[in-house]
Every structure is written in structure tokens, then in C-alpha cells.
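Standup notes
- HV: blocked on the assembly model, inputs below
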Amino acid sequence: MTTQVSKAPRRTGASGLRRGEGAAGWLFVAPVIIILGLFLFIPVLMALWVSFSDWNGRGSPLSSSVDFVGLENYAAVTTGGGLAERNFGISLRNIAWYVLLVVPLQTALALFLAVLVSRAVLRGRGFFRTAFYFPSVTSSVAITVLWLFLFSTTGVVNEVLSWVGINGPNWFNDPRGIFHIGFGAVGVDSAPTALGDSGFLGISWWDWIAGPSVALFAFMLMAIFTTSGTFMLLFIAALQNVGIELGEAGMMDGASAWQRFWHITLPQLRPTLFTVLTLGLIGGWQVFEQIYTGTQGGPAKTTLTPAYLSYQAAFQNQDWGQGSAIAFILFLIIIFFALVQRWVLRERPVSRRRAAQYQVKGQKP
Amino acid sequence: MTVTAVGDTAVVTEPRAPRAVRTGRATRIWGQVLLYAVLIVLALIYIYPFLVQVATSFKTDAEAAADPISLIPTVFTWAAYELLFSRSDFPLWFMNSAIVTICVTLGRVFFVSLAGYALARLRFRGRALIFALVIAVMAVPGVVLLIPKFLVLNQIGIYDSYAGMILPLLVDAAGVFIMKNFFESIPVSIEEQARIDGAGTFRVFWSIVLPMARPALITIIILSFQGSWNELSHFIVSTQSPELTTLTKGVASLASGQLSQGSQYPLKLAAAAIMTIPVAVMFFIFQKRIMNTTQGALKE
């Protein structure tokens, strides 16, 4: 009966129990459909139109006075050669460093915490888990306010650094790139001509390799601090499902704890690793609220992110076309990297080289 | 190689074979000491900032700058809290956040479980398509929606109103997903019985299914409460008048110094501490469940 009904759904009649299910079904999902449609699908379509238009924020973007300008807005931020392109370039530089450093570090830290609190014998497990997770429940506004205090010139972090003789920087007002600081320490203070004269998106290569500024670095530490707890929970759940038999077999074979973790536990965590990396990547590209609350893109635009730039272009400079164009480019970038990651971390058969490695290992006495 | 096997941890101090067993035991004890030392230092790093936050909110401005790290103020003062509650819009912000959070949470629980039930149990044309769309929605990065949301709110004339703040948050695709999964996991027989007794679809849903769904509903309540209380970006693009400012938006303006002179750290940290209290209380009440739901909700 079930198959029959699902194949040819009947409105009324034959099946008494299933009477009116079609209507009820639609009625039940109607609120969700209406709200998602009204505040998600239509908005995205409207913004797509705005990104191809010259709407200036006055009146309705759908009125007849608004003109289609093709790819003009997209061109302005990617090849225009003006301030718009430079700002977009700077924001991409900042967020690229941010994602590149935050995603691996938060994943590694979350996994490390999960392994620590998942030890078979551990007193105070609940306490430690709660401690590591708590920062995740606070709002980004509250945590940013706290961070501004901790990393102020006379703040807690600099106080602690002074104990070991380090004179801490004025974190959120320091636009120097951390790699530039590093180059400076080995005597390279200005751009070699090869890197200084050419560049990409209006930024010289020398500025691309500056790394995150000290200010952005403080935000990165905050991201790691607030997300590691959530991801730790995912890893804890995954670790509970990892069979201990394999690990014990590894012990018999004389594998060290590190070898067992690397060759036996980690491969089994691959699906969770994928989830955590993907969530981290998607979240990383979207940094907005922290910047809005904390630095508004400063100092010297070194905490400007694409999301904040998009907001600023539209809501503050009334350049809605460019703001929307930036948002859609960001959207494409996020999708692109999510797919790349999916491809890189896909399940694949063991390569011949890998298989050969296992052979050699197995034959050792 | 043998030593490492006995040692159980990667750290092996004495590689000589005859003393392997004794070294193994010593290594294990040192391993334990090291483990707890690392855990305690880490826990301190994760918790201390919040202790400092509360402590600093009771300090004077001068002391907050001079001695940021101590947990006991030399001069204990309520000045920051008095200023917040009697001479600023803070109570208004708090009320707005409370209104929005309560409406959003109640609305979400109802709509999301309705849709989840329909997608899990009711057979109707287009069900698979709708579910696919809900999943697709989950993949849209929220930050891309800032400008679009403003455009639509403006177009339909609910920009800068409670309706504009609440309606778009009423539905959450992830919630639909969680409820659908839950309803699929409970046996269908009780509902069938009620249907045979002649109960209508909504009645079955309301008085039979929903009471059984308590664990999943609590998950939805936690997620919606936390999500809407901590929400900022939606309120930035949906409101502009001071009367509709929420806690997140108000405290963000405090932080960027739009309303205050000087650093005023005790004031800002007091505001941040108060806005953390509701989610912290929620967290400690449902602690066990949160630790498990986050796993369940996000697990593939």
C-alpha cells in the first residue's frame, strides 16, 4: 500500500487513513516556504539584479529609472585600477591570510583538546570540556569587547608578556604585517624591486606577503579561541566511535602512541575532519561582526574583510552595485573552496606507493 | 622499539632495555602529570578572560588600566552598572533583545517542527523538491544575504520595525532538518493508531507527536535562543532607529566608542558580561544536552 500511495498520490477517497494528507502537507510546510522564499530566494535574486545595475539606494531598485550596466560593478572591483579595486584586493589579502592560518590552527587545536579530554582515565573530564566549550556560546559582540580589553596597550596580554620581558605591541592599532616584522628582523625592511613594482588587484606582491597585521592577528587568536570548543565536541563524538581494537592491534605491533594516532586514529576521523575543515573555511571567509564591532577595517585597512567591505560599500557609501558584486564574488569563492576541499579530502583507494609502504612495514620483525 | 611499546606514551627517557618496565611506569606517571598540567593551563587560558571580564566591570577606569589582570578590585564599585541601567539606553536594548528572542524562539519551534513533521511523515507532491530546497538554503553563506535582506525589507515596507527584525529569523533550515531527522527516528505506530481513531492530521501532530518530540524541541529552543540573542548582522541591516536597537547592536556601538569618551573598559565589560548571562544560564541548565546535541545536529 505504501508504494502504491507514494507512486500515485490520491487526493481523497480510497485510503481513509491518508485522507487530506496532500493538503495538510502543503499547509504544514507553507510557513517555511513563504519565509524562506520571501527572505532568501527573492532577496538573492534582487541583489543579483542590483549587482548588475546602477541603483544608488534611492527609491526602489526595481523602478524604471534604474539601468542595467552589465558587468560594470564587477569590473570596478576586480580590474578598475581605482580605489575600489585596491580595497577589494586588500580585503582579499587579509581574509586569505586569515583563513590560511585560522582554519588549520583551530582544527588542530580542537583535535588536540578532544584527544586530551577523551583519555580513558581522566578526572574532571566534564569540567575541562565545559571550560573549552564555554567561549563558543558567547556572542561575537561580547567576545570582541572582551578581546579589545585583553589586547589593549595596558591589557592582560601585554601584562603577561611583560613577565617574560616582552614589550607587547598596541595590538588593535598596529597595521604592520607579521611577516614584514619577521623580514625586518633579518634586515629586509623594504620591498625588493621584483616584488615592489608588480602585483595583483592593485596590491604589490610585497604587500601580499606582508601576512596578517598585528591587529588582524589578534582577531585570528579570537576566532581560534571561540571556535575550538565547538569543533572539539565534534571530534569527541567521532573519537567515541573509533574502534579501540585497531589501536590495541597497533600496540601489539609495537607502534608508538604517535604512530597509532597518525596511522590508525586519524584516518578514521576523516569524515569529521572534512566537516570541521569545511565549516571552518565557510565561517572564515565570512568574518564580519567582529570587524563591525571592533576595528571597522582599521588600522590602515588591515582588518578590512570582503564581507565588511561589501557592507561598507552599500550601506555607508551608497554604492549598492559594488557592494552586491563583492558579496556575490565572495559567494563564488566560498563555493569554490568548499568544492576544492571536498575533492582533496575525497575517499580514495590506497595508492600504490602507500600500499608499498604498508607492505614494507608489515614485513619488519 | 620494545621500550616504546611498554612506555605507552611517545616520551621515552631511558631507552635501555633492562630497565624498560620500571621506566615505563615512571613515564606513565610523568605522562599523567604532564597531561593534567597541560589541561589545567589550557583551562585557565579559556576561563580566565571571563573572570577578568567580571572583575574589571567592578573596577574604576583607572584601576582597569593600571592593573588589568587581578581578579579582586582594590576599590569595589557598581559605577559601571549604575551608569548602564540608569543613564543609558541599555535597559531598552535588553528589552528589545528579549522581545525578539522570545518571538523568534516560539515561532521557530512551531514552524520548524510543523515542516519537519510534514517532510518526515506526510505524503504530498513536491515533498522531495522542498526538502532539497531546504538543504540548498543551508548552504547559502549568511553574510551574502546582508544587502539582499535589506532590499526586500525595504521593498515590502517592514524595514525598521519589529516585523522586519523578527519575520526573517522565524525559520531556520537547519532546524527543519533536525526535526525531520528526529520524526523519522520515532516509530509511526502510535500515530497510525490515533488516525484510526479518527484524529485529524493537525491533531495527531499537536497532541501525539509533539509531546514525544521533547528532546528535539529542546535542541531547537537552545539553538534559536542562542542564535537570536547573539544575532547582530540581521539587526544592522533591518533597523536604524535607536528605539529598535538590540543588545548586540547597542553594545557594538559602545565598543566602537560612538557613545562614550575614553576607553571606559569597566562600562563596556559590564555590558558584555550582562549580555552573556542569559546564554550562559541557558548553557548551564542544558549543559549535558548541548554537549550532545551539537554532536547530533552537525554529524553527517
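- HV (later): unblocked. Residues 3 and 20 of chain B are 6 Å apart (CA to CA). The longest helix of chain B spans residues 20-57.
- Next: hand off to the docking folks.
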